[in-house]
Specification:
Oligomer: homodimer
Number of strands of chain A: 0
Distance between the termini of chain A: 29 Å
Radius of gyration of chain A: 21 Å
Number of helices of chain A: 6
Chain lengths: 122, 122
């Protein structure tokens, strides 16, 4: 089975909906990039057991996204935050050229910081 | 039992994690503000059955929030978006007084629109 990059993202959002054991196996596979055989020898279950466990966990993560659409919602939020940051930088540049108001400068800086804080808090 | 306002909010975020039947009952109770007796006569189950069903659903919604913290995450996002909107309005006012740049004006308007779009997409 090929590793599905989307699963790694869904794990960030919904990892806490899995049991500890499921999450461990999926994290070893997707985040630590271990093979099925390595996880099997590491956890004392069969390679097939590991594969089944990962398949079940993937199903649950995809089911969570199908219900809550968190990854999709945060992707759209991120697009808009990126645009807000670009606009704030544009305002800084226009302000540099014309008014050079310190007040506008400090307020655009703060907007950029807030947009970053929202992104990082995901 | 008292109606818990937080549940209504959690229902917005996690309602799709409940079964259709559970969601119906909780929505009648919290969003339509029906009494347990009204829901019982409406759904053909006992008042105690309705109460148990609501309690179970509340437990699941609270469990989802305990794991994913979505309501809390979006509350923090909203606080920052409100601050971004206030800053953009401040920039508009400073720009009105001093530079009166059309470019700054249109870019602050766009920031305010994007912040609104993020809020509404919750």
């Amino acid at each position: 089975m090929g590793k599905n990059l989307e699963i790694s993202l869904l794990l960030d959002f919904y990892g806490d909906m899995l049991t500890d054991k499921q999450r461990d196996v999926v994290e070893l596979y997707y985040n630590e990039d271990l093979s099925l055989a390595e996880i099997a020898s590491h956890s004392g279950i069969t390679r097939q057991g590991v594969r089944d466990s990962i398949k079940r966990a993937e199903g649950q993560l995809l089911d969570c996204e199908g219900r809550l659409h968190l990854a999709e919602r945060f992707r759209r939020i991120q697009e808009r935050l990126d645009e807000i940051t670009d606009l704030a930088r544009d305002i800084e540049r226009v302000n540099d050229r014309f008014g050079a108001s310190n007040e506008i400068y400090s307020k655009t800086k703060r907007i950029i910081t807030l947009a970053e804080e929202i992104s990082d808090a995901e």
